[in-house]
Design a protein that fits this description.
The protein is an all-beta fold. The chain contains no helices and eleven strands.
Amino acid sequence: QVQLAESGGGLVQAGGSLRLSCAASGRTFSDYALAWFRQAPGKERDIVGRISLGNGYAYYADSVKGRFTISRDNAKNTVYLQMNSLKPEDTAVYYCAVGRFVGGSSWPSRYDYWGQGTQVTVSS
């Protein structure tokens, strides 16, 4: 069993930055594939980025590539999402998720545990 807790969301102007954190308890992050998803009102939950279990490969959605970075601190059992050059279309609830499978996936259904989500609002 893993418990995830996101933090760091808030209101920011376009062009600004935020860093989201996802702290895990119960198991270590090194045993899981990691991902960040986001969901805007009326839309599906979409992948933002992920780190594969095994080779540590990092993948980013085209919409955030070059602006967002996922990193992990295994000692703190925490994964981060650094978001730079934020745009109004980045406004959404952001979720971290972990899954016990080798490799990575952009499908929410592959992930076993989810955080409660944190709201990110980018004003124009």
